[in-house]
C-alpha cells in the first residue's frame, strides 16, 4: 500500500464512530440505538421478517407517518391535526378563479358497461388535443387519441409501463417519489438502478448526470419533473438537451403530475411538459404520465393518462387487461369537458397564483422560525418544501433535551403538536434495511406539503415553531399550546 493510501485509510479510520454494541462503524457520531424515533421505525412490521409475506412492501413514507400519527389520535380527530405530510392539493375547497368542485356526475347507460382498458375514445381525444394546444402548436407531428392511454391513477400508469418494459437497465434518481422503488422492485424483466443526486447541485438532475447514465448502459430513465420532494423543475433548455441526448438511445419516462404547479412564469398559467421537445410523437421514446389528481385537484377520481408512441400505448392497453381492468367510465366521461384548453389555462392561472401565495407564506414562516434555505434554492414548482433541518439558526443549545436535527426526530417531536411531515429518509432508498439511518444523505431533511388550505398551514407552522422553541428551552420541555 502506498504512503498516500495509508494516510487516507488512517484518516478514514480515525473518523469512524463505533456503535454501542461494538459491531458497526459509521462516519456519523449518532447511534440509532440511543434514539427512540429510530428504534420505533425499526420495530415497524415492514422491517421484520414474516413467513409468506414480504413486509418490505407494506409501508411507504406517507403511510408510515399516518400510522404513527394514528397512535396519537389522528384517526379519531383528524380535523384537529395539521397534516403537512400527504401530497393532497386542497381537495374539496373552491379556489378563486378555479372551476367549482364537482359534487355529482351523470352516469350514462354506456358508463355502466365495462370500458376499454385504454380508456374511452372521447377522453383520449381530449387529452391529445390539450397537449397539442399547449405544447405542439406549429409542429408537424401531432398527438392523436392513439397516443393516449387512460389509466386508474398515476401509480397504475407507472405499473403498466414497468410491466411492458423489455430487458434493460432502468435508472431513477433519489431523492424522489417514495413509491418508485417499491413499484419498480416488483418486476424482474429489468434492473432498476437508483442514482443519488448531489446536495451541491441542490438535488437537481442535469444533462451530465443523464449522459453518465447512458454511458453505463442505462436504456430507460424514470424521473419526476417537476420533482417531488425538492420542488424544482428542469429548465426548458436543459430538458430539451436531455431529450436530445437520449433520442434513439434511451426511453424517457416523465412523471409530470406537478406540471401545473410552476411559479417561474409570473403565474400566467404556463405549464411544462417534455411533449414540447418531442420531434416525432411515434418515434421519440418519451412517455408522459399525468392526470386529474394534482393540477385538477381530484385525486379520488383516479383518472390519469399516459402519452407516448402508439406502439407503447397499444402495449399499455393490453397490460391493463391483466393488471387493473381499466379506469372508471363515468368519471372518464365527466372529465372530457374539463380538458378544454381555454378552461385549463384559466384553471392553471388561478392555481398558480393561489399556491405561490401559500409557498411564500410557508417560506416566510420557516425563515422567521430560524430555518434558512442554505444551499437550497427557493422551490419553483410543486407544493413541497424540502426543508434542511441543519439550516436552523441559531443552532440549538448543546444541552437541549429535544433532538430535532434529523427528520425522524423532528417528525416525532411534531406529533406532540398534532402536526405531520414526512422524514427525508423515505425519499431515499429504504435505508432502514441497507445501512445506518444516519448515513442517509436525506436524513436531515423533511418534506413539508403546502397542499392543505391556509388554516391548516398556519396550524402546522405554529406547531413547528413551538417544537423549535421547546428545543431551545423557551417553552419548557413539554410546553405546548395544542388543546389536548
TrEMBL record:
Q: Name one GO biological process term.
A: amino acid metabolic process
Q: Where is the composition biased (Basic and acidic residues)?
A: 20-35
Domain Aminotransferase class I/classII large intervals:
112-450
Co-factor(s): pyridoxal 5'-phosphate
> What is a single molecular function from GO for this protein?
pyridoxal phosphate binding
- Tell me the segments the record calls region Disordered: 1-56
List keywords of the entry alphabetically: Aminotransferase, Pyridoxal phosphate, Transferase
**InterPro entries registered for this protein in UniProt:** Aminotransferase_I/II_large, AspAT/PAT-like, PyrdxlP-dep_Trfase, PyrdxlP-dep_Trfase_major
Give the source's domain of life in one word. Eukaryota
Q: Fetch the PANTHER family from UniProt.
A: ASPARTATE AMINOTRANSFERASE
Member of which family?
Answer: Belongs to the class-I pyridoxal-phosphate-dependent aminotransferase family.
Name of the protein in its database record: Aminotransferase class I/classII large domain-containing protein
Amino acid at each position: 500500500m502506498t504512503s498516500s493510501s495509508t494516510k487516507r485509510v488512517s484518516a478514514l479510520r480515525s473518523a469512524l464512530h463505533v456503535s454501542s454494541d461494538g459491531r458497526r462503524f459509521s462516519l456519523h457520531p449518532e447511534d440509532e440505538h440511543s434514539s427512540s424515533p429510530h428504534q420505533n421505525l425499526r420495530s415497524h412490521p415492514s422491517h421484520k421478517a414474516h413467513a409468506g409475506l414480504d413486509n418490505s412492501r407494506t409501508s411507504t413514507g406517507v403511510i408510515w407517518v399516518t400510522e404513527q400519527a394514528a397512535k396519537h389520535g389522528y384517526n379519531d380527530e383528524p380535523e384537529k391535526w395539521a397534516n403537512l405530510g400527504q401530497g393532497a392539493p386542497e381537495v374539496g375547497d373552491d379556489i378563486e378563479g378555479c372551476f367549482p368542485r364537482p359534487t355529482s356526475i351523470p352516469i350514462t347507460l354506456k358508463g355502466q358497461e365495462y370500458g376499454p382498458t385504454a380508456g374511452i375514445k372521447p377522453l383520449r381525444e381530449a387529452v391529445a388535443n390539450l397537449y397539442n394546444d399547449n405544447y405542439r402548436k406549429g409542429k408537424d407531428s401531432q398527438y392523436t387519441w392513439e397516443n393516449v392511454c387512460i389509466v386508474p391513477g398515476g401509480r397504475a400508469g407507472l405499473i403498466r409501463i414497468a410491466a411492458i418494459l423489455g430487458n434493460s437497465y432502468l435508472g431513477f434518481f433519489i431523492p424522489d417519489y417514495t413509491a418508485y422503488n417499491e413499484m419498480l422492485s416488483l418486476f424482474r424483466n429489468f434492473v432498476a438502478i437508483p442514482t443519488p443526486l448531489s446536495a451541491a447541485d441542490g438535488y437537481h438532475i442535469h444533462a451530465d448526470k443523464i449522459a453518465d447514465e447512458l454511458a453505463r448502459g442505462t436504456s430507460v430513465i424514470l424521473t419526476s419533473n417537476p420533482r417531488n420532494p425538492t420542488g424544482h423543475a428542469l429548465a426548458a433548455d436543459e430538458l430539451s438537451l436531455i431529450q436530445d441526448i437520449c433520442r434513439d438511445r434511451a426511453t424517457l419516462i416523465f412523471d409530470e403530475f406537478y406540471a401545473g404547479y410552476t411559479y417561474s412564469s409570473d403565474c400566467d398559467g404556463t405549464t411544462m411538459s417534455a411533449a414540447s421537445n418531442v420531434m416525432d410523437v411515434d418515434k421519440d421514446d418519451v412517455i408522459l404520465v399525468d392526470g386529474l389528481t394534482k393540477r385538477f385537484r381530484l385525486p379520488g377520481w383516479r383518472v390519469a393518462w399516459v402519452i407516448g408512441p402508439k406502439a407503447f400505448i397499444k402495449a399499455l392497453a393490453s397490460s391493463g387487461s391483466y393488471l387493473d381492468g381499466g379506469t372508471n367510465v363515468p368519471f372518464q366521461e365527466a372529465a372530457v369537458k374539463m380538458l378544454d384548453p381555454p378552461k385549463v389555462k384559466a384553471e392553471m392561472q388561478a392555481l398558480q397564483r393561489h399556491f405561490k401565495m401559500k409557498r411564500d407564506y410557508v417560506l416566510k414562516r420557516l425563515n422567521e422560525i430560524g430555518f434558512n434555505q442554505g444551499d437550497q434554492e427557493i422551490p419553483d414548482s410543486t407544493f413541497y418544501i424540502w426543508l434542511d433541518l441543519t439550516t436552523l439558526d441559531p443552532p440549538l443549545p448543546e444541552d437541549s433535551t429535544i433532538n430535532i436535527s434529523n427528520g425522524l426526530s423532528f417528525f416525532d417531536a411534531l406529533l406532540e403538536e398534532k402536526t405531520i411531515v414526512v422524514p427525508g429518509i423515505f425519499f431515499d432508498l429504504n435505508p432502514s434495511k441497507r445501512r445506518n439511518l444516519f448515513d442517509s444523505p436525506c436524513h436531515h431533511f423533511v418534506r413539508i406539503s403546502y397542499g392543505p388550505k391556509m388554516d391548516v398551514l398556519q396550524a402546522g407552522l405554529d406547531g413547528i415553531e413551538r417544537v423549535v422553541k421547546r428545543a431551545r428551552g423557551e417553552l419548557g420541555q413539554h410546553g405546548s399550546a395544542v388543546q389536548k
